[in-house]
Amino acid sequence: MTDISLADFHLTMQVLDHLDAGIVILDKNYNVYAWNTFMQAYSGISSEQIMGKSLFDVVPHLPEKWLKNKIASTFKLRMRSFSAWEDRPWIFKFTNFSPISGGSDYMFQNMTLTPLKSLTGEYTHICLTVTDVTDIAKNKNHLRESNAQLTHLSITDRLTQLHNRGHWENCLNDEFEHFQQLSQPITLVMFDIDHFKKVNDTYGHVAGDGVIKNIASIVRSAKRQSDIAGRYGGEEFGVILPGTTADMTSYFTERLRKKVEKSSVKIDGTEIKVTISLGICELHSGISSYESWLEQTDAALYESKKNGRNQTTVAKPDGRFTPLVSTGSREKQRDRKVC
Asked: Quick one: pLDDT band at residue 268, thresholds 50, 70, 90?
């Protein structure tokens, strides 16, 4: 009977050693009773070095507190438990030798914990099965990155790298609905490039694209992280400023206007300078939809253009339009009077 038992044990150990997975058997004191070839190969720790010793005394970098809690829970529930690589990329810090690792230095692992009964029927040991899922993790991460890139492309204007019109309008609608619920201040700015057709006609569309890209860069540097900027179409842009009143927004528009006025774009040795006209409208309870909010802001923008360009106009809740008095607008008004 003993010979049969030893033979069975010998066969079982051969199977364990040829599994393409790590097998570790522990008692309740975390002493190692089985440590197969997979574990020896990846850890560099031979079975002679670890058998009968505490796992945590021999193997470095283990998440000791987490793993002990996981083992205790498995014994208590008397049923299998699992650890997936998405939650914890690895338990045993094994170097990843795969040539197609996708930049991963360590082996991604799934682990199954199985409580084992002794001949008396008592659960006295636990088997940890460690599976290499590096290729699966790599492919899934690659898919996530690809989907993220596709999402970015679908919502981004290619020329300016700001939000495209469709996504930006969705954001505008979302912010309008948030206002309906919370009534927190929020302001919309619309602006476009003055005499942009003349830029295209004089210098060509490549130069025009350069001007648009330059202004988009200025917008990114001037706005806060919470502000939502987009290219609305052609040479027109929109910026949503959450948590901001019209008065507060005027500081942003003036800073933006002055930066654009001072900047220039060089195309084939020619320096091109442009200005922008802006409209501001703070959202209030009298505005019934995001489309109406957009229309009122656009109306303020066209008031700026009508009154000489290179200035900002504020749409008031009572329907009036108030120009922001700035150095640039004062000089233009003075020049028109002299003429």
From this structure: confident
